[in-house]
């Protein structure tokens, strides 16, 4: 009986449960017709749930989800701005320094441009207030990153979907672990989990993608460090830079999204409670 | 009329809660007993607290400090006025209906 009482009371929205849960449990425990009363409470709890689904209540969730989906678009835009800026600076430096700035140095431009975007993503995440658990954030980021990547690559939708999907699944799992660690007060452990796990997620996604371009496992494994750090692509058996070119903004975008997910899972305190309704909303 | 007409299908339990509290402060269990005595049907805890929540949100009733681990509720001045207005309206409707029935 006690378990059944707890179960039906758990059906109520949290604000209602906190306010009236003990009183309803008291009435149920003294009920003369427990089955009828349990059914009544379950029906009314579901009615309260439906009533809670107003736009005013959903608004924070809609805004947060929209923000998560828009974040990769913003990161891509910021990356292109910094990339252009770095390229201009590089061109200006090359004009002054001449031959000492070679084409090899130009490979560093994407890596340099990705740094401020990733740093900005961590900063942004520290100021975000998600109404739901941060563990769900990578799902929204995946939804936002996928159309961006489909737009800027011409390899077909499946390799991009596989790569971004693999990143999303891995980062969701990592965020779940990191969020749980943060809640238990193990923030340093959460940062390490997200940092190393995030690199692994990016490596996995970029490897999956580059495998479709190069067909070589060795090249695929080396693709993320080579393209994201501006290392000579001939080291991974791609002297023409074909794989690096096909990557487009994928490494930078996934790095920024990982940094954002890392920031969300380790610097924000998820508030999963539903705000109590105002009297105006109640009518 | 303030409040009760906006309750829809919850208007009857809400009205019965107000009628029950018109006698004085009561906790949930006492309200159930009282409403059962008035109508012959004991409201379920979900129905009762759904009505209590709406009436509290509309400031027609208010919770008092807990007594013996139970929280009593009482009518507010607005609740008393709303109940008065609703019962007068019902009396007018009932009177009209009964008069017309007697004529037919």
From TrEMBL, chain B:
Entry's Pfam families?
Answer: PadR
Q: Out of the domains of life, which is the source?
A: Bacteria
All copies of the Transcription regulator PadR N-terminal domain together span: 17-84
Q: Record's InterPro entries?
A: Metal_resp_DNA-bind_regulator (IPR052509), Tscrpt_reg_PadR_N (IPR005149), WH-like_DNA-bd_sf (IPR036388), WH_DNA-bd_sf (IPR036390)
Query: Which Gene3D superfamilies does the record cross-reference, listed alphabetically?
Result: Winged helix-like DNA-binding domain superfamily/Winged helix DNA-binding domain
Q: Which positions carry the signal peptide feature in this UniProt record?
A: none
Return the protein name.
Answer: Helix-turn-helix transcriptional regulator
Recorded source organism is Dactylosporangium maewongense
The uppermost taxa in this organism's lineage are: Bacteria, Bacillati, Actinomycetota, Actinomycetes, Micromonosporales
